[in-house]
TrEMBL record, chain A:
<keyword id="KW-0129">CBS domain</keyword>
<dbReference type="Pfam" id="PF00571">
    <property type="entry name" value="CBS"/>
</dbReference>
<dbReference type="InterPro" id="IPR051921">
    <property type="entry name" value="ABC_osmolyte_uptake_ATP-bind"/>
</dbReference>
<keyword id="KW-1003">Cell membrane</keyword>
<dbReference type="Pfam" id="PF00005">
    <property type="entry name" value="ABC_tran"/>
</dbReference>
<dbReference type="InterPro" id="IPR000644">
    <property type="entry name" value="CBS_dom"/>
</dbReference>
<dbReference type="GO" id="GO:0005524">
    <property type="term" value="F:ATP binding"/>
</dbReference>
<keyword id="KW-0997">Cell inner membrane</keyword>
<dbReference type="InterPro" id="IPR017871">
    <property type="entry name" value="ABC_transporter-like_CS"/>
</dbReference>
From TrEMBL, chain B:
<dbReference type="InterPro" id="IPR000515">
    <property type="entry name" value="MetI-like"/>
</dbReference>
<keyword id="KW-0472">Membrane</keyword>
<feature type="transmembrane region" description="Helical">
    <location>
        <begin position="69"/>
        <end position="87"/>
    </location>
</feature>
<comment type="similarity">
    <text>Belongs to the binding-protein-dependent transport system permease family.</text>
</comment>
<feature type="transmembrane region" description="Helical">
    <location>
        <begin position="217"/>
        <end position="240"/>
    </location>
</feature>
<keyword id="KW-1133">Transmembrane helix</keyword>
<feature type="transmembrane region" description="Helical">
    <location>
        <begin position="46"/>
        <end position="63"/>
    </location>
</feature>
<feature type="transmembrane region" description="Helical">
    <location>
        <begin position="137"/>
        <end position="163"/>
    </location>
</feature>
<feature type="domain" description="ABC transmembrane type-1">
    <location>
        <begin position="90"/>
        <end position="269"/>
    </location>
</feature>
Length: 401, 277
């Protein structure tokens, strides 16, 4: 069971939404519908599921319909057609009272420009959701104080929003959404109005809170880096449609279409990808048992100037260069003694970003090892370093070549 | 341009005299009785309070809401009203202002709220307000007298017509100007429409509503003077007498009295508005 399930949700704005919807179902484009009927398609048959405890990010540029989409989930905007289910209860066919109850019990929301009540203090803002439910005054205060502490705003309970900085105001917004103790947080460009350093803080804070409280988060953003950082899964929206849903890696590695690939081409992959995603299986491997002669022949065969040596259980031993192989053969030194063992190794989940320093220092490829020292793959220095200079497309050619 | 004659004058007279007045006279009678006793009650209360005590209370209010300067001005102003012997007239004027402001707000603010919540209501209310504000006041002084007779009640009705529009408009404006995201936030947490109105929209509209109240009071005061022509007692009557007798001195005495009341009321209500911001 998905926590949030959205199917074919559509919003048409304008004088005659039904007509717009018909045209949409007949396959007309958004632009044609606007020109013919004056109706604007906000969201076009979007479907997605959000699993419990997941951060699901909807990413799109302005005008892509992402802010409309999140408002269709809690019906701040009424959908033209389609269905939204939360915990298998259909939100879209609820009456007014049921909807109010669902908003109170299930859906917290955080807004781009905070949407704080300027006439209420911090604690008055945070307790608002509880107050309108008629919760006892003492319990309101207690819960509100708890969520104010959760976002690190202790001591500001009696300040007014206008007395706080943007980052602190958004912490109030977050605390207000947490105070109701709903399973789901809807976050509409929640950090977009903050400056970059504060934004990073808030992203970390959200990840920390999410880990601790296990909320299901539906997060809207126009910032791809933010999407990649926060999202367990990401949906990319364009012109009201969802064009791709997937994990960061899936979206970066297999963009569904030109729009997405164009979008992700300038992404700093080093921050998003980890070692397992850029490593490749080494083409040439040898073992001690094969001896230096075989090693040299293999190198010749693959046109390589060095070879990785593993033991019987594929545990990594070291790197054998052509010079050392020849020396071992001619002078009859065991391969063990000429092996280079100071090759840099790493684990599969190390971020690419953290490998840059190593790649700059070392002459050899970086070796990716499993926990029991099995050789999983190697990362050529060029695949890390070229990405920094050339961007993704060139990078791919190099790794594939 | 008179291609045909449109007998608006005759029709109106026939309509009013032969149908409207006979039909509704009892209704107007009861409104008249209620308003009359209201005006009398306020007037009597104001006159019953010793002038010294009234001055003291007003000075304290002025001090609290407008600061030392206003308190000082209020003291001087009250001394002036007493020393030129127009205290009773001032209290008469003040009571008409109080009653008509009260009526204007009791009707105006809810109408403002409805027109903020509903565009159709606004579409009806706006031209009505335009009509009320632009129609020359003398035009509705006549029917007011016809319906309610000479005196304070007609003055209150005429003043209401003139002074209520800002209360409606500013309430409407104040509610409509509450930021969209704040409204969305309130709804997203599960507010009912009533909670949205009373916990978010109205509190945030208070500064704007107070500006409307201030305007209503000011307009009431200026109308209270004109209303003296239909027999309303007070400072307006003093001015009117001075005109008919060409008594410049009396005119100045009454005119200054109105100015004093206007400034005090204006500053005090502005003070309330600012305190709530």
């Amino acid at each position: 069971m998905s926590k949030i399930s959205v199917s074919d949700i559509t919003k048409v704005f304008g004088p005659n939404p039904k007509q717009g919807l018909e045209r949409l179902n007949q396959g007309y484009s958004k632009d044609d519908i606007l020109a013919d009927t004056g109706n604007t398609v906000g969201v076009n048959r979007a479907s997605f599921d959000v699993e419990e405890g997941e951060i699901f990010v909807i990413m799109g540029l302005s005008g892509s319909g992402k802010s409309t989409l999140i408002r269709l989930v809690n019906r701040l905007i009424e959908p033209t057609s389609g269905h939204v289910y939360i915990d298998d209860e259909e939100i879209t066919n609820m009456n007014k009272d049921e909807l109010i109850e669902a908003r109170r019990q299930k859906l917290g929301m955080v807004f781009q420009n905070f949407g704080l009540f300027p006439h209420r203090t911090v604690i008055g803002n945070v307790a608002y959701g509880l107050e309108i439910q008629g919760v006892e005054k003492e319990e309101q205060i207690e819960k509100a104080k708890q969520s104010i502490a959760d976002v690190g705003l202790n001591g500001y309970e009696n300040s007014y929003p206008s007395e706080l900085s943007g980052g602190m105001q958004q912490r109030v917004g977050l605390a207000r959404a947490l105070a109701n103790d709903t399973d789901i947080l809807l976050m509409d460009e929640a950090f977009s109005a903050l400056d970059p350093l504060i934004r990073k803080d808030m992203q970390d804070e959200l990840l920390r809170l999410q880990k601790r409280l296990g909320k299901t988060v539906l997060f809207i953003t126009h910032d791809l880096d933010e999407a990649l950082k926060l999202g367990d899964r990401i949906a990319i929206m364009k012109d009201g449609q969802i064009v791709q849903i997937g994990s960061s890696e899936e979206i970066l590695e297999n963009p569904a279409n030109d729009y997405v690939s164009n979008f992700v081409k300038d992404v700093d992959r080093s921050k998003v990808l980890d070692a397992s995603q850029v490593m490749r299986r080494p083409e040439v491997l040898t073992t001690y048992k094969n001896g230096p002669r075989t090693a040299v022949r293999k190198m010749e065969e693959f046109g390589a100037s060095s070879i990785f040596v593993v033991d019987r259980d594929e545990r990594f031993q070291g790197l054998l260069t052509i010079d050392d192989a020849i020396r071992s053969y001619k002078e009859d030194i065991p391969m063990e003694d000429v092996l280079k063992r100071d090759v840099h190794t790493t684990t599969p989940d190390t971020a690419l970003n953290d490998l840059i320093g190593i790649a700059v220092d070392t002459k050899y490829p970086i070796v990716v090892l499993s926990e029991d020292n099995k050789l999983l793959g190697i990362i050529s220095r060029v695949s890390i370093l070229s990405g920094l200079v050339l961007g993704k497309e060139h990078d791919e050619e190099v790794t594939e070549a | 341009m008179n291609y045909f004659y449109f007998p608006l004058e005759q029709w109106t007279n026939t309509f009013v005299n032969e149908w409207f007045l006979p039909t509704f006279s009892s209704a107007f009678e009861s409104i008249s009785v209620v308003l009359n006793s209201f005006v009398d009650f306020v007037t009597n209360t104001l006159l019953f309070i010793p002038a010294e005590l009234f001055t003291l209370i007003l000075v304290l209010i002025a001090w609290r809401l407008g600061g030392k300067g206003l308190a000082f001005f209020t003291l001087i102003g009250m001394l002036y009203l007493g020393s030129v012997d127009i205290w009773e007239e001032s209290m008469n004027t003040l009571s008409i202002v109080i009653v008509s402001t009260f009526v204007s707000l009791v009707i105006g603010i809810p109408v403002g709220i409805f027109s903020a919540m509903n565009n159709k209501v606004q579409a009806i209310v706006r031209p009505t307000l335009d009509f009320m504000q632009t129609l020359p006041s003398f035009v509705y002084l006549i029917p007011a007298v016809l319906l309610f007779g000479l005196g304070g009640v007609s003055a209150v009705i005429a003043t209401f017509i003139f002074a209520a529009p800002p209360a409606v408009r500013m309430t409407n404006l104040g509610i409509r100007h509450v930021p969209k995201e704040v409204i969305e936030a309130s709804k997203a947490f599960g507010s009912t429409s009533k909670q949205l109105l009373f916990k978010v929209q109205l509190p945030l509209a208070v500064p704007s509503i107070m500006a409307g109240v201030n305007q209503t009071i000011m307009l009431s005061l200026s109308m209270a003077v004109i209303a003296s022509m239909i027999g309303a007692p007070g400072l307006g009557a003093t001015v009117l007498t001075s005109i008919s007798r060409v008594n410049i001195g009396l005119g100045l005495v009454g005119g200054l009295g109105i100015v004093v009341l206007a400034i005090i009321l204006d500053r005090i209500t502005q003070g309330i508005g600012q305190n709530t911001k």
